[in-house]
């Protein structure tokens, strides 16, 4: 079985603490047992700290056992290692477990002090130090959990705001489609007796526009059912050439290629595709500083595949940006999927958007 490697910072800290303990023990305390014997106890109470964040409770068990044994044996030991171990248990384990570990070690240590015949007045000081270490660790754990909750809340708020923005844009798209339907219906009404052919063509347009409007309304209601911004409502893939030209003019080296039979898509899909490309290029300009950016559109039988790549570092881990969250929301809204990858030397956004939903 492969043993987990200790954290570099923890290992370095354990070695530094061991060196300080050995120096202090030799220079100040002048232990009665041979120095090699004392150094062995000091090593046992400090070196396991290299694994303290990987296995906080077992590390406390090892360090605590060595400290208790050293106390009973009358070997000059250091309390620093056990304080660090107690702090780590408080920081990385539930409060109830940390309290149990504190009580168990505290009782063992008090018993060892009494057996060794040390001054009882020293025991309350030790217990206060142990409790302080656990309390500080518990506070650190609480702060870390609060920060994670705040990050999740920011992500949820960003997703909700993006859904609201998408809903507004789709509302404008549907309103435009309904206006067109009204115009064609008016034409059909006037021509129904004088020019039946023209009236029939107008009614066909009303039917087609109505179907498209219904599809967009379904997506709109889907966005609103799960829970403000001022972008142009009619952005579409026809505007991509202008978008790329503006990027090139701003010294962002973008190359656009289109595969398959380019065709009109539902307004919601057009809008979603345009915004995904736009945000991917914005991300490249703001975070990547690339030397090459490619935008590939592939019109397939039932879906549009978008692939945007750049050779810059892109946005790393941690808190995701609102733009990346928005990409996922937009793709999900039209029944599509998106994959955002940050590999060495490449940042890539791949989206698949179905034509029918």
UniProtKB/TrEMBL annotation:
Highest rank taxon of the organism: Bacteria
Cited SMART domains: HATPase_c (SM00387)
Broad class of enzyme this protein falls into: transferase
Entry's Gene Ontology cellular component terms: membrane
One Pfam family cited in the UniProt record for this chain: HisKA_3
Transmembrane spans: 62-89, 110-136
Catalyses which reaction(s): ATP + protein L-histidine = ADP + protein N-phospho-L-histidine
InterPro entries reported for this sequence: HATPase_C_sf, HATPase_dom, Sensor_HK_TwoCompSys, Sig_transdc_His_kin_sub3_dim/P
Alphabetically ordered keywords of this record: ATP-binding, Kinase, Membrane, Nucleotide-binding, Phosphoprotein, Transferase, Transmembrane, Transmembrane helix, Two-component regulatory system
Domain Histidine kinase/HSP90-like ATPase, residue spans: 268-357
A Gene Ontology molecular function term of the record: ATP binding
EC assignment: 2.7.13.3
Protein name: histidine kinase
Annotated organism of origin: Actinokineospora fastidiosa
């Amino acid at each position: 079985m492969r043993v987990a490697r200790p954290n570099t910072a923890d290992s370095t800290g354990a070695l530094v603490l061991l060196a300080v303990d050995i120096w202090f023990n030799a220079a100040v305390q002048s232990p009665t047992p041979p120095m090699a014997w004392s150094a062995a106890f000091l090593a046992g109470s400090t070196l396991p700290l290299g694994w303290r964040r990987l296995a906080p409770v077992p590390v406390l068990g090892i360090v605590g056992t060595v400290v208790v044994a050293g106390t009973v044996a009358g070997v000059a030991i250091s309390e620093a290692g056990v304080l660090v171990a107690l702090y780590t248990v408080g920081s990385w384990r539930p409060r109830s477990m940390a309290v149990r570990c504190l009580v168990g070690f505290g009782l063992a240590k008090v018993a060892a002090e009494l057996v060794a015949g040390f001054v009882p007045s020293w025991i309350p000081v030790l217990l206060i130090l142990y409790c302080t270490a656990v309390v500080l660790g518990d506070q650190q754990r609480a702060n870390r959990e609060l920060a994670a909750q705040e990050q999740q809340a920011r992500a949820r708020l960003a997703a909700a705001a993006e859904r609201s923005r998408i809903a507004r844009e789709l509302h404008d798209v549907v309103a435009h489609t309904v206006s067109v339907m009204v115009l064609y219906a008016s034409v059909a009404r006037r021509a129904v007796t004088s020019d039946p052919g023209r009236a029939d063509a107008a009614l066909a347009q009303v039917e087609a526009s109505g179907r498209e409007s219904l599809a967009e309304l379904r997506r709109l209601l889907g966005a609103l059912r799960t829970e403000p911004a001022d972008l142009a409502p009619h952005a579409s893939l026809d505007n991509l050439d202008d978008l790329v030209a503006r990027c090139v003019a701003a010294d962002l080296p973008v190359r656009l290629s289109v595969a398959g039979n380019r065709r009109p898509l539902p307004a919601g899909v057009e809008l979603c595709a345009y915004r995904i490309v736009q945000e991917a290029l914005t991300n490249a300009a703001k975070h990547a500083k690339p030397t090459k950016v490619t935008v590939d559109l592939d019109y397939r039988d039932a879906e549009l595949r978008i692939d945007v790549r750049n050779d810059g570092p892109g946005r790393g881990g941690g808190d995701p940006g609102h733009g990346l969250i928005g990409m996922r929301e937009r793709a999900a809204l039209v029944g599509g999927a998106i994959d955002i990858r940050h590999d060495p030397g490449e940042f890539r956004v791949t989206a698949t958007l179905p034509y029918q939903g």
